[in-house]
Description:
CATH topology of the largest domain: BirA Bifunctional Protein, domain 2
CATH architecture of the largest domain: 2-Layer Sandwich
CATH class of the largest domain: Alpha Beta
Strand content: 15-25%
Largest sheet: 8 strands, mixed
Amino acid sequence: MLDIKFVKNNQKIIKEDLKKRKLEARIPILNQLILDYGRYLNIRKGLDELRHRKNIISEEINKLKKGNEDISKELSEAKSIPSKISALEEEYAKLQNSIKINLTQIPNVMHKSVPSGKDASENKVVKKWGKIPKFSFKIKNHVELIEDLGVADFDSSAKVSGSGFYYLRGDLALLNQALIRFAIDHLLKKGYIYIEPPLMIKRKIAEAAEDYEAFKNKIYRIEGEDLHLIPTSEHAILGMMANKTIPEGKLPLRFFGYSMCFRKEVGSHGINEKGLWRTHQFNKVEQFIFCRPEDSWKYYNELQKNSEEIYKKLKLPYRIFESCSGDLGLWKAKGSDLEVYRPTTRKYEEVGSLSNCTDYQSGDLNIKCINKKGEKRVLHTLNNTAIATSRAMVVIIENYQQKDGGIKVPKILQKYMGKKVIKNEKSF
């Protein structure tokens, strides 16, 4: 979340930002936040004065006792102070809690380049690449193709785990691994550090990562424990640096992580349909950068370029779809999606998401940098999907399908697969 001091000193900017995000209804929350913060500061000052006065009176009483003088007046005042402190501490705690809750309702300040718009329908296409394939035969969707080939089993997974899960078999399972290894190799060559993170995180990390109240129904919580299954390795990598101060000379820290990811996707369209597009469990390689505040927009472009290179090497037609103000996540200063064309839906659909969160995440987790003068600043954080393999497999299967029902393996993946075409693997 934003720092309360920043909010107090930049009320005009934040109000304009709320209006651009179409969140004018939150302006009263901002106003209440400023009032509460003013009271909070006054109470803190009052507590400091009372504690100081308590010490002074104690000294005065000791002096009076030594001189055998009357201490009744001072003693009476001394006895009244603890109850006054207790009352103020109670109000102080309530204000602290109120400020924290209201701060979660104030989104990150957007970059000035974010286009205005009321919702996702006004997101902006900023780039297109590749040619849309043409087919001389009647095409099939990815579920038809892989079930005909016997390389996936959705019926058995529905019996074992419920909807939104899947079994991969034979060549499709190998294609999944090929995509993971391809993305890992791609980012290793760029000097990024590979991370395999824990698959569970504490609530504090989830709250720092994004809008927890909006997201909590989409992530799996471990009952009776302060743990959640990760919806993306981004969250675990963020938490890895909590309460750390990094010398500026060692920045940026470029990481990428591979993990299984878990999402409930409650209320999401199509979760009860067969297939790999929207699932409760999936594999993803995620990029993450910690950097100096003045460098984050440079690395925003770098992260986008990395992902584009992956889809260019896979020779899949894509576009970059920039989020408008009304569709931008509250924790983001700017963001865009990479969408690949699906011939079966005749639409570009999201396969990855890029975000610059500036200091919105790192401030909560006390992640800072320090310069040679000993001055500390909160770092900026950025993340971008390198590849989510289930969706990548869908667009490969549908774009590379062959007339005989086979699936051509993209040339860049053939060295990992050891074959050029995925053919029928039905054995039972």
